């Protein structure tokens, strides 16, 4: 079966990497492309490649009307993604959400809409396979070592903190690890904020977000026991390549599910 894909965010950093990857796969077909600034262009030309015979549309609604499709992949902006996801599922399309910025209440709404329409949605804060492995290994370690903190490294210009990767990791760690032996932020003197922000179910996992030139995106889980330490770290480079394989995996999986699945963890086996 060929899976027909609409790429929402076709001209973006990730969209530019995903379009050639989708076109290259025998079981996938690029059925539509969305980006306001390139509306009317051929999707290939719009990303500086050879024409591919798919016209870029200004809105997702238009792209869904113009061609039949099975899956919408969204890598746009936090302000647009929820509307795109709900538009796609209400039109009977499965959705892969790469765009950051949605919270638990948004996901609950998207899950309910997907179930009502009998389609699947897969959303992940990080579609890199090795970042997913990093999270999995950290969650394995947390079952044995409850004292864990997260360091989130990114460029000076990154607008949000913590990163989606660090936030998802800390939330998952907070759900499964035992009681930490570290003093709570409220119990330390000095400048308590330097202990980082607590993320996830109370008391949360401390996350320390560094924002400095020269970093791209790295995330580290540090586990401590008396007289020994374990570090599990992921480093992303400067291209969007790490997110392609995981997104393709999600496209192939999402057509077989109903409702929302968050994270790549359950798919990588
Ligand atoms: N989950 C992951 O693994 C992962 C990895 C990397 C990035 N991300 C996230 O994915 C999102 C996109 O990242 P990026 O770096 O590719 O962004 P980007 O380079 O800014 O590209 C955004 C794309 O979306 C389009 N767009 C923006 N607003 C739109 C709207 N309202 N309607 C239709 N198209 C719209 C833009 O074109 P026009 O402006 O011309 O419309 C452009 O094609 C961000 O939230 C980022 O944090 C997630």
Q: List low-confidence stretches.
A: none
CATH superfamily of the largest domain: NAD(P)-binding Rossmann-like Domain
Write the CATH fold name of the largest domain: Rossmann fold
Helicity level: 25-40%
From the spread of the alpha carbons, the general shape counts as elongated
How are strands sequenced across the largest beta sheet? Answer: 3-2-1-4-5-6-12
Ligands and ions found: NADP nicotinamide-adenine-dinucleotide phosphate
How far apart lie the N and C ends?
22 Å
What's the order of the H and E elements?
Answer: EHEHEHEHEHEHEHEEEEHE
The main pleated sheet reads as:
7 strands, parallel
Total helix count? Answer: 8
> Which percent band covers the strand fraction?
15-25%
Q: What's the count of strands?
A: 12
What is the rounded Rg? Answer: 20 Å
- Report the top-level CATH class of the largest domain: Alpha Beta
Mean pLDDT: 95
CATH architecture of the largest domain: 3-Layer(aba) Sandwich
Q: Could you walk me through the main structural features you see in this protein, from its secondary elements to its overall organization?
A:
With 269 residues, the protein is an alpha/beta fold. It has 2 domains: 3-127 and 239-266, 3-Layer(aba) Sandwich (Rossmann fold); 129-235, Dihydrodipicolinate Reductase, domain 2 (2-Layer Sandwich), CATH 3.30.360. The chain has 8 helices and 12 strands. The protein has helices spanning 13-24, 43-46, 60-66, 78-90, 104-117, 129-142, 164-176, 242-254; strands at 3-8, 28-34, 56-57, 71-74, 94-97, 120-123, 148-154, 197-199, 205-211, 217-225, 228-236, 259-262. It has a 7-stranded parallel β-sheet with strand order 3-2-1-4-5-6-12, with helices on both faces. The protein has a 5-stranded mixed β-sheet with strand order 8-9-7-10-11. Strand 2, helix 2 and strand 3 (56-57) form a beta-alpha-beta unit. Helix 4 runs parallel beside helix 5. The relative contact order is 0.16. The mean pLDDT is 95. The structure holds NADP nicotinamide-adenine-dinucleotide phosphate. NADP nicotinamide-adenine-dinucleotide phosphate (NAP) binds at residues 9-15, 34-38, 75-78, 80, 98-100, 124-127, 243. NADP nicotinamide-adenine-dinucleotide phosphate binds at residues 9-15, 34-38, 75-78, 80, 98-100, 124-127, 243.
């Amino acid at each position: 079966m060929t899976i027909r894909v609409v790429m929402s965010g076709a001209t973006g950093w990730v969209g530019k990497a995903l379009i050639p990857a989708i076109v290259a796969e025998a079981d996938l077909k690029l059925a539509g492309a969305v980006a306001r600034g390139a509306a009317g262009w051929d999707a290939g030309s719009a990303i500086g490649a050879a024409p591919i015979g798919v016209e870029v549309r200004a809105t997702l609604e238009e792209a869904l009307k113009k061609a039949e499709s099975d899956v919408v992949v969204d890598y746009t902006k936090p302000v647009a993604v929820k509307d795109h996801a709900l538009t796609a599922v209400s039109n009977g399309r499965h959705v892969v959400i790469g765009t950051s910025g949605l919270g638990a209440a948004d996901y609950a709404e998207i899950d309910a809409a997907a179930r009502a329409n009998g389609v699947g949605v897969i959303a992940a804060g990080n579609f890199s396979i090795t970042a997913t492995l990093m999270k999995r290994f950290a969650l394995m370690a947390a079952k044995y070592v409850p004292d864990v903190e997260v360091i989130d490294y990114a460029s000076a210009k990154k607008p949000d903190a913590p990163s989606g990767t660090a936030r998802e990791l800390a939330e998952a760690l907070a759900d499964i690890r035992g009681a930490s032996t570290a003093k709570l932020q409220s119990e330390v003197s000095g400048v308590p904020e330097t202990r980082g922000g607590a993320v996830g179910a109370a008391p949360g996992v401390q996350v320390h977000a560094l924002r400095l030139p020269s970093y791209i995106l790295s995330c580290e889980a540090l586990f401590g026991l008396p007289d020994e330490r374990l570090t599990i770290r992921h480093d992303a480079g400067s291209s969007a390549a790490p997110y392609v394989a995981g997104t393709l995996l999600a496209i192939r999986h999402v057509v077989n599910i109903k409702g929302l699945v968050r994270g790549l963890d359950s798919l990588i086996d």
